[in-house]
Amino acid sequence: MTSEKKKPNRLIHESSPYLQQHARNPVDWYPWGEEALERARRENRPIFLSIGYSSCHWCHVMERESFENPHVARLLNKHFVNIKVDREERPDVDAVYMEALQMMTGQGGWPLNVWLTPDQVPIFAGTYFPPQDYHGRPGFASVITRLAEVCRQQPEKVRQQAEEMQKALANDIYDHLSRGSVTPELLDRAFQGYAGVFDGEDGGFSPAPKFPTAMGIGFLLRYSHRPGSDQARHMALFSLEKMISGGIYDQVGGGFHRYSTDRKWLVPHFEKMLYDNALLLPVLAEAFQITGRDVFARTADETISFLNREMRHPDGAYYSALDADTDGVEGKFYTFTHEELEQLLDKETFKLVADHYGIDAGGNWEGVSVLHRAVSLEELAKRRGTDTERLQGRLDVAREQLLAYRNRRRRPGLDDKIITSWNALMLIALCRCTRLLDRNAGDAIRLGTFLAEKAFQGDTLFRIVDHEGNAKQPGFLDDYALLADGYSRLFELTGDLHWLSLSVKLVQIMIDQFHDDEKAAFRYASTSEEQLVTQTRDIFDNAQPGGSTAAIAALYRVGHLAGMPEWTRLAVAAMEPLTEVAASHPTAFGNLLQTMHLHLHPGREIVISSGINDPDQPDAGLAASPAGDLAADIPADLAGDPAGDHDAVAQQMLAIWRKQYDPSTWVITLAAKAQSNTSSQDLPEDRGLPDISAQYSDKTAIDGKTTAYVCQEFQCRAPVQTIEDFQKEITANN
Questions:
Q1: Rounded to an integer, what distance in angstroms lies between the CA atom of residue 210 and that of residue 201?
Q2: Average pLDDT rounded to a whole number, residues 58-72
Q3: From the CB of residue 471, how many other CB atoms can be counted at a distance below 10 Å?
Q4: What is the tens place of the pLDDT at every residue in 192-225?
């Protein structure tokens, strides 16, 4: 038994950590590919397809119970061609068979186990199966045996069922959508949809299990940017506050877990995903901009610190996930007992930690404690007769002790593959946090550079960069769209036209390979790649932005920044079939609703062109400024722009802009050195693209002094060079 288990199967040659986890199962696994599919056709043998991902708790359970079981392995090997898929590497395969599962059972989830005909058409599907029959529910071995009998003894029945499923999967959702205009009434209906499911006691927009819903929060913050929308703002900020206080937020190390298993955000599902944290970072930064409350900026900073510490590649990209389990026990790494904390901390510190984080002798989950902010900092300071700043300092010291202690434990597994679309979300997040929180842009630039060098090769964007630095699997719609979006934001931040040119190139390839002209829609997989039993559209914003909504956002953004209105029109045309369903089911379209809001409420375009160092320049602006001592708003360690290329006047202009929530405005900062480097040598020339440098060639620093250009609805006001004049422009008609 031991030797059979240890003998590697074909997955031993795969780079995916998830596939590697199954490489020594006694199951004769194949990776998805022509070798396995050709064998199934040649031998007329049905396929058993199992899909999961490395940090999936129930995937681990089913592996231990079934895929490591020699009896189960013999049954699978005898009757089926067995294929393992990492859903994060092949989201197209996962999407097809998840849709089949939902058709068959009305439910979804992972592990996703599907039995297919030799031509890859699903005939039966389920998620987790127990190892043995239990309370009337068949065990996995029984399911295998019964399906093998049906395939062998009733081939005509199997064929008919496969034909019906093939027709159902081929049904295009766009045939059932009606095209409509983007109107303010649709956003009103979407807001009411969120209000109807809002949990007024604990925040969030669902009962347990409760997910972060970052894209929906982003929509609500934008919707609240008009008079009389206090409820939208309350729902968004209150939900963020409750998450930050709950166990879904790692109170010791920073960063958010996948979701909460309960209504109160107390006990999370402990895996940590890059995309969850990347999506939450921009809304945390926006919440800080709206409220000025340090808790939001602090949480964003702690989350970035966690990601940089535990999930970053040495060259600046980010890994995919941290496992929920350690030694087969979920949450073991993150939880504490009353006794170990009492022994670790001095008496006074322990009392403070226990009061703030809700520690008691019995624990709050299965005998251990999930740390959460049981008593707010403000209330705790009031009880102790001290101020919050002093108390926070003591808690910070205690957290460092707890983190050092926790880091001596056996760590959860790390999925170290680098996924382009998830890293693009992180690039967007870093750019937003750099701009809104006045952070250094180094993290964003390093990440953008890594993806440009490793993932984007020629005219192909790859989805995966493995732990050896090899690019694999041509990208899908969300990879192209989100990275184009991310590079457009990196251009806004740095003024480097190289990033905008990359955005333009990605969008053009995206249109060529993924756009369906007939339906004014997008396919998820490129027409040039492997064709599955059906094509998927990916229109819903679920845990991540849907490929279609990401493509619409990228078209709109890049079209605006590159001066290509035909792309913004194409974005609106792709929006229109989805507007009605988005208004009716808003929690499934948070990302799309943000782009709809941008289209209905276009902001200004502000271009700040930094001057060449001039010792007299800062004084000219500061002397006349009515805004008080703006220098106090600029961190001492940032003598120039966060990117390191902008002068003090540009910094003060940005500080003024940050004081008001302005989600639809485009802010482009052109550095002095970037203005003298606007040649087209880095621009894509093989696709007949326009010279995008012309879009900004006239936005120069007049007489070498920092100059701001404020434009709206294709009209630009007179350029300004003093802080006083800039503030007047910013506050006018806002």
A1: 13
A2: 95
A3: 19
A4: 999 999 999 999 999 999 999 999 999 999 999 8
Question: What are the percentages of helix, strand and coil residues in the chain, rounded to 5?
Answer: 50, 10, 35
Q: How many CB atoms lie within 10 A of CB 479?
A: 29
Tokens of 355: 């009061």
CA angle (266 as vertex; 261, 272 as ends), nearest 5: 65
What are φ and ψ of residue 415, in 5° steps? -90, 105
What tokens does 162 get?
A: 């496969």
Q: How far is CA 255 from CA 105, 249, 279, 700, in A?
A: 34, 6, 12, 41
Domain with CATH 1.10.10 in the chain: 334-408
pTM: 0.92
Copy the structure tokens of residue 690.
């326009």
- pLDDT, one tens digit per residue, over 363-396 is 999 999 999 999 999 999 999 999 999 999 999 9
Residue with tokens 């507007």: 579
Which top CATH class is 184-327+415-600? mainly alpha
Distances (CA, A) of 118 to 31, 143, 401, 552, 690: 15, 19, 57, 37, 48
Q: What are phi and psi of 352, to 5 degrees?
A: -65, -45
- As assigned by CATH, the class of the 334-408 domain is mainly alpha
Mean pLDDT of the chain: 90
| pLDDT band, residue 613 (cuts 50/70/90) | low
Question: Residue-wise over 510-533: b if at least 16 C-beta within 10 A, else e?
Answer: bbebbbeeebbbbbbbbeeeeebb
Sequence-separated (6 or more) residues with CB below 8 Å from residue 622? 630, 631, 652, 723
Residue range(s) in the chain whose domain bears CATH number 1.50.10.10 = 184-327+415-600
* 611 and 672 Cβ atoms separated by less than 8 Å: yes
